[in-house]
Amino acid sequence: MGKYYTPDFKLEAVKRVQRTGEPVSKVAEELGINPNTLHGWMKRIREHPEGPFPGSGKLSPEDDRLRKLERENRDLREEVEILKKAAVYFAKNQK
Predict the structure, then answer these.
(1) Amino acid 65: pLDDT
(2) What is the pLDDT of residues 33-47, one digit of tens each?
């Protein structure tokens, strides 16, 4: 597994490129990271400015919303099955 960089480190590296106007290759070399890695971080910030680096164990807002919707869908399906069984039971015992 590769080296781990904190979200703060990534943000500061990108801000340094933006603030100074220095080439990505120069900033990357000074920070001891691969220029492609820094380019990737810059792209990630452009595409997801609200939360570019969710961090270990954290979901992006989109993934978190999807997970919640999937859980809600599963719960609702279970409720429907229970209601179907209850309807059959009450229909049989209505006489």
Answers:
(1) 85
(2) 999 999 999 998 888
Q: Is the whole model's pTM more than 0.70, yes or no?
A: no
Residue with tokens 């595409």: 47
Q: In the predicted model, is pLDDT for residue 17 greater than 90?
A: yes
Fold of 1-58: Arc Repressor Mutant, subunit A (1.10.10)
Q: How far apart are the first and last CA of the chain?
A: 67
d(CA 49, CA 72): 28
Report the alpha-carbon distance of residue 91 to residue 7 in Å, rounded. 59
Instruction: Report whether 61 contacts 51 (CB < 8 A).
Output: yes
Domain coordinates in residue numbering, the chain: 1-58, 59-95
